[in-house]
Amino acid sequence: MVRFTIQNGDRVQRALSRIGEDFNAKVLYDVHRAAANVVKKELEKVTPEANNDKKSRNKLSRNVMVSRSTVSRTGAFLGFSKRGFYAVFLERGTKPRTTSGNSGKYKKKANRGSMSPKPFVQITYRASLPTVVNYISSNYAKIVNRSLKKIK
């Protein structure tokens, strides 16, 4: 569990209690999105890039995205777009692929290889936690004010 204190948190808490629940959800979403953007920047830095001729839009670091959570009204999802589907293979690896050797093109049993896991997402999440806590604790009032200005 992570615990941190927010400077002038009591003033912010009083202001949030005065506004309605919909506005409160919007403010909390903006806070979560700000935290996710901090992690996004860190993840873009450490995402592995192969030395290949892929177009820049297909590179994994260009496909890190922050979107609204489907589970919670106030949550933000940090992940990869559809173009970055192969991030799962890099993060978790694959099991060994073998042919059955019974029929068709492959008469012999053959090993087609596997990918060993090279985790970078979970490591980045854990490493960026102190940065996120510092950012939110020092900029909480700014984020709330910016969110409230959008609502008006």
Write up this protein:
The protein is mostly helical and 152 residues long. It has one domain. 48% of the residues lie in helices and 10% in strands. The protein has 4 helices and 4 strands. Helix 2 (21-46) runs antiparallel to helix 4 (121-151).
Brief overview:
Helix content is 48%, strand content 10%. By secondary structure, it is mainly α. The chain has one domain (16-49, 58-151).
Number of DSSP E strands? 4
Number of helices: 4
Radius of gyration: 22 Å
Shape: elongated
Task: Give a topology summary.
Blueprint lengths: L8 H10 L2 H26 L17 E5 L7 E5 L6 H6 L4 E2 L12 E3 L7 H31 L1
Antiparallel strand pairs: 1-2, 3-4
Helix pairs in contact: 2-4
Top keywords for this entry?
mainly alpha; 152 residues; elongated; 10% strand
